[in-house]
Amino acid sequence: MSRPQDPHRPFLPFGNPFRMILPKSSYLSPKLIALLNTFEETLTERLKKLKPRDREDVLSLSWMRFAIESLCGIHTDIKTLITALELPVCDWDDKWIDVYLDNSVKLLDICIAFTSEISRLNQGRLFLQLALHNLGGDSSKKSVRALSSLDGWRQHISSKNPRLDNCFSIMDSLTQTLDLPKIKNSAKGKVLMRAMYGVKVVTISLCSIFAAAFSGSAKKLMDLQAPNTCLWAEAFADLQTFVNTEIRSTCSSGRVTALKELEAVDASAKKLFPIVQNEVDPIEAEMLQNPRSDLGKSEEKLSQGLDLLAKEVDNFFNIILTGRDALLGNLRIGGNASDSVQNNKVEGQAVR
């Protein structure tokens, strides 16, 4: 799926991991096969539902919120599978645990970076609100203040968040753990590793999409490839191709941002700027009303979208955090992984 102008890493640099996870000689009981199939079928349906109906929906805040909501569901699904497998933590290979804990820290860092960017965008709205307030007055001083606020918005929105750059390096390191270790003498371990593999591929892909959307650059957008042995591979490829193609098209057009609601606000602000710059007099005031109204509506839509997205990112953060804490707790007491999942919600509330 990589394009000549945007070369990127395929996700299988070390060969097919399933030759190590599920070799031909391995045996899975009908129960384990059913559990794995149920997990992968559910993942497939989530990916199909996540594909936007229209190109205009790509990178809208509502779609991004749904994407994070889907990620929350996928990570909850893996916990449900662990419960069903009844695989004690003491039976987990040390390498599985190390990789899981390392990956969870990286995902928490990515969530923090996304939260930071959402907060930065929300701070930019203060310039818009001040501009709208001053546009309601008749004095020339208020027009000057409105102009200053609009200019402040323009500078703020074109600035970059250094934490987003860190996201790309984190995701690069996450791809290095996609080549999973050989599983010996553990049918349940094989099922768990294959399911976790699916979760990681989808998580990295969606986080890559978010980082590209927030940064306004598709240069490091990832094109991951899943083997056809995965039931969800086709749905994943379809979703990734559709979204990544639209992101690259949007970013190559020279727009300030790839986010739809942010783009609408920026367009409204640009319409107002030259009008206010010419010092509107009472006769010309009517021509100011429509752009001002458009800016107010688009700013309100942006505000609502950012608030809802921030809540979903926070929810995803807590799912990762409580899952990590539950595993660590069970390692200390030598408990069962399924017990950690059952107590996850209670522990999550304690963390909050």
Give the SSE string: HHHHHHHHHHHH
Proportion of residues in helical segments: over 70%
Q: Quick check: average pLDDT?
A: 82
Shape: elongated
What is the rounded Rg?
24 Å
Largest sheet: none
Strand content: under 5%
The rounded distance between the terminal residues' Cα atoms is 41 Å
Structural class: mainly alpha
Q: How many extended strands?
A: 0
Number of domains: 1
Low-confidence stretches: 1-21, 335-352
Instruction: Tell me the number of helical segments per DSSP (H or I, 4 or more residues long).
Output: 12
Describe the structure.
The protein has twelve helices and no strands. Residues 1-21 and 335-352 have low confidence and may be disordered. It is elongated and about 80 Å long. The chain has helices at residues 18-21, 30-50, 61-85, 94-134, 140-158, 162-175, 187-215, 233-252, 260-277, 286-333, 337-342, 344-351. It has one domain (24-347). The chain is mainly alpha-helical. Belongs to the ROH1 family. InterPro entries: ROH1-like. It is a single-pass membrane protein.
Brief summary:
This protein is mainly α and 352 residues long. It contains twelve helices and no strands. Helix 9 packs antiparallel against helix 10 (286-333) and helix 10 packs across helix 12 (344-351).
Which keywords apply here?
352 residues, elongated, disordered N terminus, disordered C terminus, mainly alpha, 72% helix, single chain, 12 helices
Secondary structure layout:
Layout: H1 18-21, H2 30-50, H3 61-85, H4 94-134, H5 140-158, H6 162-175, H7 187-215, H8 233-252, H9 260-277, H10 286-333, H11 337-342, H12 344-351
